Amino acid sequence: MARYIGPVCRLCRREAMKLFLKGERCYTDKCAIEKRNFPPGMHGKARKQKMAGYGVQLREKQKVKRIYGVLEEQFRHYFETAERTRGITGETLLRLLETRLDNVVYRLGLATSRAQARQLVRHGHFTVNGRKVDIPSYSLRAGDVVTVKAGSQKAPAILHAMEEVKGRGIPEWLNFDPNAFAGRVMSLPTREQINLPVQEQLIVELYSK
Questions:
Q1: How many domains is the chain built from?
Q2: Is 91 found in the same domain as 125?
Q3: Which residues constitute the domain of residue 80?
Q4: Could you tell me the mean pLDDT of each successive run of 10 residues in the chain, 209 residues long?
Q5: Which of 48, 91, 108, 146 is such that its CA lies 20 to 30 A from the CA of 55?
């Protein structure tokens, strides 16, 4: 499946905010936003950031796509699914993205970034309800249990991630047992529990034109 493989720090600079795409580096003064908080490119400093209407809506969509690491076709599919689902479309869209397996692995603290979580899932390090799942976009439901496979519990990347994110905590809708290397989806996340500085209604307005 296609994915963005270019430099990720320029994505944060383009959105003028931290998207936390590079793991622990984003929490240090080495973060690109800390050093160069202006759009990438030769004329980045001279670019005017004033936008209205379509431009604001587009930037909001790009921001969410980049946070979760999905490209346009897949993102549109998520939107269409959210639109068909009963409830508030924007909140449902974020909930579908938040319950992806790679995002849950990241939220549980088993990876330092969503990109690393995606790679670990593809390499078959996790099971869901006892069955091996290597599809990052696999959608989890309330009650599902994500476990690090026995043979992967000493993997340096996973141990490093657990140590690195120990003090950051995990969302209320998840529960993690570090001794069993297992996390459970206690409930589907509410909008208040999805701690992202995005205005999902702007995305709904963009796609509704």
A1: 2
A2: no
A3: 9-97+196-207
A4: 58 59 59 58 55 82 91 95 95 97 96 92 97 97 97 94 82 95 97 90 91
A5: 91
